[in-house]
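Example with several molecule types.
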Amino acid sequence: MVTTHDMTRGYRVFQWFNGVVLTLVVVVTLYPFVNILARSFSSQTAISSGEVNLIPKGFNLTTYKIVASDPMFWTNYRNTVVYTVVATFIAMVMTTCYAYVLSKKHLKGRKVLVGVAVFTMFFSGGLIPNYVLITGLGLKNSIWAIVLPNAISVFNLLVMKAFFESLPQDLEEAAAIDGLNTYGILWKIVLPLSKAVIATMILFYAVSFWNSWFAAFLYMDRSELFPVTVYLRNLIAGATGADSFGAAAAEVTQVGANIQAVTIVLTVLPILVVYPFVQRYFVSGVMLGAVKG
Amino acid sequence: MSTSETLTVGTAREPEAEPAPRRHRRKGGSTWGRALRRDWQLYSLAVLPLLFFVIFRYLPMLGNVIAFRKFEPGGSIFGEEWVGLRYVKMFLNDPTFWNVFTNTLILGALTLIFCFPLPIVLALLLNEVRRRALKRFLQSVSYLPHFLSVVIVAGLVMQMTAVDGPINALLGYLGSEKISFMQDPDWFRTIYVSSEVWQTVGWGTILYLAALTTIDDQLYEAARMDGASRWRQVWHVTLPGIRPTAVTLLILNIGTFMAVGFEKVFLLYNPLTYPTADVISTYLYRMGLEASNFSYAAAIGLFEAVVGLVLILSANVISRRTVGTSLW
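Resulting structure tokens for the full complex:
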């Protein structure tokens, strides 16, 4: 797009400026991660004197050992994995079925079925009625309080619908002539053709369930049911509470701050490890969704 | 949807192969009967999802009637008896409500002002990076924060702004006093909006970058022929090229204007920062779930949802009338 005769002096100044700005963006984006990593390995004294910047000061693994030896941390971590797997599975089944139905343009009442879903993007019942409902259904303290109310994300539904609509119809028609019923066509013809979009959807759902905390915070009363995000939230909330008590609690807060750093590192690690490999699926999923708006 | 397509799909879907043209004779109920007979397997796939929408999306909407009814915990989810507009009047006369209402508007406006245009700027800058590997690296880095749980973001914010944190270390280095950011209501908005920018701007560039690649190179060529400078090319070719994307995102942003990130505010605020940090959703959370005034909180929640709906509908209408782009 840019040819050499464009390289005027002004443009070269711009390129230089652009380099500086983008470098700043990278630094600002990554700095919190590097800093938290450095803190997690640092000694209490170095942290409280505000010396820790990019590299650990007073390197030690004590805090990691403290966090790792808390059985509740691992219980909650396991809960996160279980909730994510179950919720993602159910959400995938529900979303795939409905998206497939919505993608059939000849279907009578299709517009109503689409409308039922899309309207919920713009208007929702709100916190209180939802809470009353979930409690009324007796779902408190069960995994279903997290899974069922989030079984379909309308955004993901529209992405899948757009994908199914883009598939060629001839294959399905041929399969129908061969005597496959709707379920058979979906299972044996459509799904094998949709591996890419299914992978993307699984990632979308898995990330959102992995990251979610508020449903668990709201509906789980016992700490052995918490996901790790709620574990971390309670650490943070504890620390803010202590902060406001002033100097007397300063030491407790400091230990808390270091434990926070370690817990953040351990929680964020799986995402950082997987991220580079799956990032392109997210991008393609967003594009697919954007086509349909 | 073309007629021929409808017909082929229609017949293919149906093993007993009914003559297709008959579908076009509209006879009220009988066409529904025929559709059900032909597509009952498809409809059956929609049953569970529809149940989901009815129970977990539409029932709570109806559940909002408790805003106008007396509600007793453990009783009917639709309340016990009508009380009319009692709870609406109550929050309209509640000074705290107007305080959190103002806070919501300010926080929403600041978020919109920063988080809407910055992705466009960043996308334009990224678009000028010509080494592809470098560009891909920059994109990967800037998307990363989007994938973090809001709890982790809140944790990072706490660590960055802590009295012993790097921001205060920098202030100390510059010779100014340490600030306890999280306890100071004057800082809350800055912190909230900065963390929003940090988390969303990179990811926000995706759609713009996609739109930028679809701009025809010939347009730039023609502009150069006419002697347009780089700036004028950006102004006359690039910006018009991404305008539909920008308008769509602006509508969506305006629609979610009132839904200021409840979870993030909830994680970051504390009683000391309530004067600036408390928003409608956090206030109704405390009223409803901590103080158990379910009906009062539901009334506030309904108000918020209706305002949100009105906002997105009007943004959509305005943009259709003025720039010809709309969501639907």
